[in-house]
Amino acid sequence: MPVEKGTVPHYGRASSVERRASSVERRASNGAWHLISSVAAPTLGAVFLLAAFAKVTRPQEPLDAMRFLTGVVPVIAPDNAVRVLIMGEIIIGSFLIFKVWPKMTLTIAAVALGLFTLWILSLIATGSAVSCGCGLDATWLKPGQARWVALAKNVVLLSIAGFAMRACCSTRTIHSTVQVQNAQA
């Protein structure tokens, strides 16, 4: 196989630029990532804002949950912890809806959802008759099947966060790869 002057043979293997180009073509032709990117993060943001609103309208549930939790971690004052939680949910929700620092905000949202999931798992494991602090109705005060539903919802939300993070990173990869290719052309 003759090699032209000024080129480097790659002996049947695609160069990194060629691999990126084919990856970009596959992802760009598939509009699913764009759809996920444009829908998943604002959906998570709405969930965070609704959770904050529920905690504001019924502050006793998260306060009871924090009081129960501070029996384990006595460093945090329950009233202040609830305020910080509500403000955090409002900030995360707003940032996700308006796509402010999407990668970092999605990461923080996923960590928060992971912590909420661990909290629900601890309530399931102990069988404690305390609200999860989710701001949901009175059935959550009782241990049992309702907590498994909360766990399932959190797993679904974590999955959405994962898909949104993947779509966010993929979209950025497409744009940066196209910019590299345009600069090389």
Q: How would a textbook summarize the main sheet? A: none
- Level of helix content? over 70%
Fraction of residues in β-strands = under 5%
Please tell me the total number of domains: 1
How many DSSP helices?
6
Strand segment tally: 0
Note the overall shape: globular
Task: Compute the separation of the termini in Å.
Answer: 25 Å
Helix/strand class: mainly alpha
> What oligomeric arrangement do these chains adopt?
single chain
**C-alpha-based Rg, rounded:** 23 Å
Stretches with pLDDT under 50, minimum 5 residues? none
Mean pLDDT: 75
What is the string of SSEs from the N terminus onward? Answer: HHHHHH
Provide key terms for this protein:
185 residues, mainly alpha, globular
Structure overview:
The protein is an all-alpha fold. The protein has one domain (31-184). It is built from six helices and no strands. The protein has helices at residues 16-29, 32-57, 60-70, 78-97, 102-126, 145-184. Helix 1 crosses helix 6 (145-184), helix 2 (32-57) packs antiparallel against helix 4 (78-97) and helix 5 (102-126) runs antiparallel to helix 6 (145-184). The two termini are 25 Å apart.
